[in-house]
Predict the structure.
Amino acid sequence: MSGKGIYYFMWGYQDSYRKYIQILAQNVLKSLGAPAEAEVLLVGSRSPDSNNRNPVCVEPEDGKWQLSLFKGLLDAVESNYQNHEMQSMCYGDEQSMRDKPEWIRRDSVRKSVEQALEVYDVENSVTSFCGEVRRIRDFYVTPIIQIPNTIFNQFPPLPMKPVVTGQQKSGYRSLIHAAMHAVLHEATEELQTPDPGRNTFYSMRGAEEVIRIAARDFMYTPGLAIEKQYMHSDLFASLNLISSLMYEGTKGIGQLILVDPDNDAVEFLVKFDEPIPFREPRWVRKILQMATTGVSIIASSKYIYGLGQLKESYDSNSQNSFTVIFIDHYHWELRCGEQALLRSHYAEPKLPQKPFDKMAFLANYTRLFPLSTREDGANLWDLLLIQVRQEYGSMIVVAEDAENEARRLSKQGTRIKPTRLTEQLFRSVSCIDGTILLDPAGYCHAIGIILDGEATDQCIPSRGSRYNSGVRYVQNDGPRRLVIVVSDDRTVDIIPRIRKLVSRSTIEKYIATFEAATLNNYHDSRNWLDKHRFYINAKQCDLINRTIDRINALPKDDYAIHLHTEPFEVHPEMNESYLTE
């Protein structure tokens, strides 16, 4: 434990506990494929039978969450307690009736903390997830995870639906929502140990296990939307098993629509006399073989009812139909309308996402090929999306010297008269081996080209020949070139790699937080800035370096661990085009 005093003291390991939960939440987001930008705070509401000097405690006490956010919290808790819907509820057993006041107290604290954070969330563009409350000594403690709304801009959740019995009774709006609730479940379990935070590293699940739990829980959402009741079937496990099975040596590719079979929007082409249960995976896999283009399996979360499709008039905003797309062997995706919600590859759940941010791609294209137009970059972006959706790998090379390269490599491919590469032409020429060679304006000069180039330290032996040949070709000195590689396993690489765009205001916010930091709370802002060194300009480098010197000079405990931070320097490639407002 650190030697520093804690004014808003709840228990001795509150700081360690909070940090463990924050690390877990960040690791979960990172493993899902989202920015690892979760922050955790704890709010303690004094118990009515306590005389503690602090009515409310916040951990960290010197962080961004001021105690004033929770002014009047105890009064709000009492109001929620007196008016709680469970007050009039009677249980059939004596023990539950004894526990009822404590259950109401815990839920009243959680609701009051949620209400207190509503204004903060709006003003700071974050979403707060409040976990279940447990009492520790004098306080009812609420663990809270906050993530920036920019993550939900990148991975949009399902639109909010009116609920009566709580979110978990109607499913989760996204895999992220399910994941944050799974993390908070771990946080609640830890709060019930004798000293939460003391041995958390050994007692809590890791990120991978938490994500699998979140995926399982999220896959109850279609069943709840369709059948209006909680289903015990593990749809996530069932779909993984079905996607892993081969049928006479072929992999399963097709669609399955999760919907109430009596929904008027369902148009059956074939309806089975007896529904086929999901617990018969080989039978279901056999049915999938019949689900060709335009025809889907019609199923609930428990049974297969036949083959058919949704009528064109169906409105996906109703959220009472979900589509499972079997992409490849052991590879499937869940959608609601056109909105992708979850992708599973070899039973590893991820957030579906575009391979790259469009804005960053276009900015990078203009930077790399300054004579190209924005329309040229947009055309290549559209080709990239088509390339990613194809069932086989392919490679596109854009080169300033495409005409000369087509001539030089004419013995290693087929040279053609410069032709604008359209979607139709791309689908035709990408089905053969070799590379498609374009100029920055999108005109194709050669197809089926075998690239040359010397091996470099950027080559990766574990990657395929497409990727490494692209790396070798781009690393050659000379005219500017860009390579898009889509491997057979759907891995997408752009060489040279695209740097994402970062908001100026976000950088300034973290610098200001770092400048105001103490020895006890500088880590989060320092870590963010350290990961974003590329985007820091000369003036900002100076401010950061002075803050590093100030923090290094502060007196420290004899046994405290202090991480060394390298001085910040301007990256030679950095310019304003990498920043957004």
Observations:
- Residues 410 and 449 are 8 Å apart (CA to CA).
- The chain has four domains: 14-218, 229-350, 358-495, 502-580.
